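Progress note, project year one: complex with F0G.
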Amino acid sequence: MKHKTIIEPFRIKSVEPLSLSTESERKEYLKKAHYNLFLLRSEEVIIDFLTDSGTSAMSADQWAGIMLGDESYAGSRSWLKMERTIKDLTGFDHILPTHQGRAAERIIYGYLGGKGKTFISNTHFDTTRANIEFSGADAIDIPIPESADTSLIHPFKGNMDVNRLEKLIAETGAENIGAVILTVTNNSGGGQPVSMRNTKAVSAICKKYGILMLLDCCRIAENSYFVKHREPEYANKSYKEIAQEMFRLCDGAAMSSKKDALVNMGGFLALRDKKIAEACTSLLIITEGFVTYGGLSGRDMEALAIGLEEVFDDHYLEYRIKSTTYLGEHLHKLGVPVLMPIGGHAVYVDAKKFYDHIPVDEYPAQALACDLYILGGIRTVEIGSVMFGKYDENGKLIPAPQELVRLAIPRRVYTQSHLEFVIETFEELIKHRHDTKGYKIVEEPQFLRHFTAKFEGI
Ligand code: F0G
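Model obtained:
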């Protein structure tokens, strides 16, 4: 018999209780947190969809690995295992351990960047952009035009616009380009995948002009799932083989291992070129740690090596992507305007459409995030004008291009009934959606205001 239910391909050995709360308690908690979900305590949250980063549940093998961790300063056995695993996956000769993704970014973009340099990506993740700009360089995003339409169905909405890439290279001059970066999957673009065909096209252009090509590979296994199921030539390849082929097309990669390496902390930089690797190694030793641990303890490296193998398991990846799709498609059926098609790690709701009565300067996505919390104890993140809005010289808001709420799903943490609970919460929310009002910001810092800003309801 072929069952139609895709079950979680694991059983649970260790459980962590959820602290359940009532709606009136949550109203109090939210008021105390000034209507900013980053200011809640985790015990005040029932289902935490704030991020899929560092929130994975580790396997029994990984926990066993924790006890085997070799904490030697130099030449740790756990490091050698992590290095072997990453070399086998990426094919790169030089592996540098870091404590998380942005540490790898600071090192590589600190070295390649600087004033006068330009970096081009399908979409730079915020920390990638911040590290590039902090070096004095410019970061330009060129996703394909289809990515701007939140309801358009396209198999690889994370792709880079290769025509614009050629034009940009001609305008900028190849010698001024620090690197071309493909983010797989494209987190800021909705967790959308990048095709192998697009990767090959970008790689060919980079080779033609002698430009370095890097992969931001946090979610490389999830991306491989989409390649296997949406590009017919890859139907018979394994997920790992697909990832290996993608790495072969590039010159290096930075990974926040807090995503697809199924660990709570970790990252790395992997490079083909010896000269670049040597320069980066010096920066690594100055700021992260010695070459055989970076910012990690031996046990972290042991768990990372095991997680990076487990993530390519067929049953795991099928469960992972299908459960994200399950949530997204059920919300879509209810009439919730979700970013289509559903991506790998998260479901994104278009709050501008959901709360079409709330103007952008009253932050509809913030309102939706607050309502989901009050009604269901669900913590999500606003990706809209709170996060990316700016002010003009008269203090008027220049809104972000989109007002989204991201429901990022931690790996191996929640079961299908948790997803049903979230769907039910939306079912209720949608009935009263036009009763909701927007928010105003009453206090905010100069930078990264979404983390600490204080709000009041209008
Ligand atoms: N690149 C991408 C595509 C990411 O999504 C992230 C983190 C990073 C780099 C930075 O890695 O956090 O380990 O330093 N994304 C998290 C998120 C924070 O919630 O999407 P880090």
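The domain at 23-52+313-457 is CATH 3.90.1150.10 (Aspartate Aminotransferase, domain 1).
The longest helix spans residues 314-334.
No further modelling is planned for this target in the current period.
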